[in-house]
Amino acid sequence: MLLNKLKIGLFNECFPPIQDGVSQVVENYARIMHRAGHDVTVATAKVPSFDYPHPYKVQNILSIPVPVRRPYRWGIPPWMVPWQPIYNFQSDIIHVHSPFTASRIALKLRKKFGMPVVATFHSKFKDDFRSSVPSDMIVNWMVKHIMQVFEAVDEVWVGAPAVLDVMREYGFKGKAEVVPHAIDFDLSGVDVPLFKSTSKAALGIDANVPCLLFVGQIIHAKNVLYTLEALRLLHQKNIPFKMFYVGKGNASDQLLQTIKAYGMQDCVEWVGQVHDRTELQQYYAAADLFLFPSLYDTLGLVVREAAAHYTPSLLLDGSTSAKDMMHGQNGFLAPQTGVADFAQAIENIILDKETCLQVGKSSAISLGKTWDQVVPEVVDRYRSIINRIRK
After folding, report:
1. Domains of the chain as residue ranges with CATH
2. What does the H/E/C string look like for the chain?
3. What tens digit of pLDDT does each residue of 288-325 get?
4. pLDDT in tens, 376-388
């Protein structure tokens, strides 16, 4: 039996069946903490008609859809429904992963019951707001509103030092602790080169054809069409490749239409959302290079997931998610000078197969830390915060 078992609340608007990097963080926290014997409750915006089949508790927050970012949902504002069951939730600590309704409820619970609240900053919210709100004044007000959450909590966490730079741009003046993120793919003891070759064959890809991959939300902020334009240049040069886009989002239809308009259906495929993690591994393993030219992401867990499968990533130099990347050592960097240069970078990498594979192996060592390694440290940090607040 676990001594000093903690009662932990993990609050986030997004949680499976809605998949993104933040929901993966929360799900892995919950899974490993529950397995270790802690009393874990996830509080999240309710997805209608979905039965949450998890071994730990899931408390739903009444929610409404986000029209411009389906399938995401917003929790109904706290002042509208104070009689929801979540308002009676008590725990030793609450960890919030979004600065919206879930975090506002957490702060109300702290005031009511006295438990500490930790918040992790995950996303470039300003970019999200700009994509759907036409007024800079309103965007700035929204950013100021969410930063109030981070100013109010007992401790702020970031996944990497570069993320704190984003928070400073948003006006945050407090301190933040660096608590690294990780992945749930553990390939220790696996013959990864064999796994890669068998996965490629299973997807029907010739062993000599370079396989390229993107996993994530199919949205403009991730530069998915930028990637496609670069691939079009390679296609025009008759350079063989097979590209998979895995995920969905509000740019999915445009991506599919553009693939057809360019006549690239044979070499570019939009797979859609893959919920089965074992199936997703097959794509990671089959890939020779992961394409991630996103300026939106703060960290890019998918880059680390790819690395675990000896698949290095190509990112844009200067992007936040590229700050831990050393060109030619644990990944590749392309200049932010346009599609043609990005296409040239892809071409140079896939034509040098030996270097690509060696960088992939190095990326697995430096980027492939697992949640089983990280979460015990998280729990230790929880205990330290609880003890500090009680004193």
Report:
1. 7-182+370-390 (3.40.50.2000), 192-367 (3.40.50.2000)
2. CCCCCCEEEEECCCCCCCCCHHHHHHHHHHHHHHHCCCEEEEEEECCCCCCCCCCCEEEEECEEECHHHCCCEEECCCCCCCCCHHHHCCCCEEEECCCCHHHHHHHHHHHHHCCCEEEEECCCHHHHHHHHCCCHHHHHHHHHHHHHHHHHCCEEEECCHHHHHHHHHCCCCCCCEECCCCECCCCCCCCHHHHHHHHHHHCCCCCCCCEEEEECCCCHHHCHHHHHHHHHHHHHCCCCCEEEEECCCCCHHHHHHHHHHCCCCCCEEEEECCCCHHHHHHHHHHCCEEEECCCCCCCCHHHHHHHCCCCCEEEECCCHHHCCCCECCCEEEECCCCHHHHHHHHHHHHHCHHHHHHHHHHHHHHHCCEHHHHHHHHHHHHHHHHHHHHC
3. 999 999 998 887 889 999 999 999 999 999 998 898 78
4. 999 999 999 999 9
